[in-house]
Amino acid sequence: MADFQRGVRIEPCERIPNHPNPLNFMNNSTRHPAIQNTNSRASGMNGKKAACISALLVGAMAVSGCGVLGAGTVKAGRARYNVAFASTTDEELLLNIVRLRYRDTPFFLNVDRVAASSSFSLGTSTSGVPHKGDRTDGTSGLRFLFSSVSGDASVNESPTVFYSPMEGERYARQMMSRLNFDVLLLLANSGWSIERLMMVTLQEMNGLKNAPTASGPTPSKEPEFREFREALRVLRALQVKGLVQLAKSDDGDESAVLLNLVDGNKDADALKFKKLLGLDAGLTTFPLRAGMGRGDGKAIYVITRPVISTMNYLAQAVVAPNGDVKAGRVTKTLKDSGEAFDWQEMLGGFFKVQSSLLKPLSSSTAVEYRGSWFYIADNDLDSKSTFSLLTQILALQSGKAAGKETPISFSFGK
Asked: How far apart are CA 37 and CA 45, in angstroms?
């Protein structure tokens, strides 16, 4: 609620003849832009003048109020709502990633819609004292000497926010359904690095495994991922050179997506990519197919991840405080040699969530959980990019949900 209390500034009044005490009024209220500073003496202001000033004040504030409501309300409030919902959405997503690192249950509370109403009120007041004395017509009698005229205006905004928990069919569709090839195609052609995109969304590509054991709770043994990462590095090099394309098939199959290696029979990176994936060295175009293992070398078989598995995969990048590791609150992953496995060997340069006991001074997103702060550093551009990609995947998957749940509403106002 925004309150505007405006008034006429009154200088200390002159002593009123035959009155036991002088009038010393000072209005210290904040000035409304629509009301100009004026001075008035107590003596000589009659009722008509006070009424005229009151009317002028009401009119001025009414005109000013038109600017406060309507377009003015949108201008003042829309950016604040945008920032608030964007930041809390990021915080909720980061919080759930941290929860998964601790094997705690994630929970999403969606903001379905916001309804805000605004009201504007205004008023004026005058004050004075009775005084017995001569009137202007020469007669004597009781009259009022007005000492002040003031006005006030207030704007009240009462937002109602509608929340709905993500559960049931909606949760299954948005979080448990595997990404389809259309999402990959859309994101790949939207400027995202194909290495970052496939690392986050694919669990396997033509038999090369991308840490499938990390798609759930943190595994106790080092996952298999190195050949997959090497293939993606080569594919990224081809993308940088403009020698790889993802496109829809023109054979009538709307679900088919083709990966085309431009100059695929001559470029060294293209030849290396085909060798890593066991593809036919004489071909340059390969359809993407859903499936495990390797086929006859004429297609690329891939397994995509559901969103919840992608979140589990990225949750391995959460650096838990040493106290939580020693207390066994998070799983400690080991190599075959018995040494501790550092998940940044797999996710380094793509995603990292740091932790500290104190609230970080410079972070893009930070949440407090289990007595510690978890955050993405503001200068960690790679982690911010991966986090942004995840939010876009969530948004695209949310379009599949029917959204029939009854929302919970909360109203806020003064």
From this structure: 17
